[in-house]
Amino acid sequence: MFGALFSFLGGGVFRMLLGEVSAWMTKRQEHAYEIERMKVQGELEAAQHGRNLESIRVQAELGVQTIRVQGEADLARLDAAGFYSAVAEAQKPTGIWFVDLWNGIIRPLCATIAVYLWVLALNAQGWKMGEWDKELVGVILGFYFVSRQMAKAGK
């Protein structure tokens, strides 16, 4: 009778102990899995954070570069506007007849003297044009044709 009771209690206790040990091992494995998952999640979040910081740094640098380029472009526009206004002011008559005459004649006079000296040099060379002479003729023709076309276009 004790044998049957012992078998009954031993089988039940054994199953109970086996269930508890199995549950404990399952919880232990789940706990280890959860810790490993949290470590991997932390590494992924740290990597994401590093990428976010790098992205913010690059965006800040690009913003600074954009501001610098815009500033340089604004300065260039102001320089060009100042130059054009200075040229326009220089071409306005002063109201003093001698100054206006001098301003009107100085460029043509200088050009005439330069052409005269060049013709004298060509005459001394026997009217044979060298490379420098050919380039000079090209520059002069280009200047006069372009300035005439720009004047027609109102620029």
Keywords summarizing the entry:
rod-shaped, 155 residues, mainly alpha, 91% helix
Describe this structure as you would to a colleague.
By secondary structure, the chain is mostly helical. The chain has 2 domains: 1-92; 95-155. The protein contains 3 helices and no strands. The longest helix has 90 residues, at 2-91. It is rod-shaped and about 135 Å long. The termini are far apart.
Give a short overview:
The chain has 155 residues and is an all-alpha fold.
Count of distinct strands: 0
**Elements, N to C (H/E):** HHH
Summed up, the helix count is 3
Helix vs. strand class: mainly alpha
Largest sheet: none
Strand residue percentage: under 5%
Name the poorly predicted regions: none
Instruction: Choose one word for the global shape.
Output: rod-shaped
Q: What is the assembly state of the chains in this entry?
A: single chain
Rg is: 47 Å
Kindly state the mean pLDDT as a whole number? Answer: 82
Q: How far from one another are the termini?
A: 124 Å
Report helical residue fraction.
over 70%
Number of domains: 2
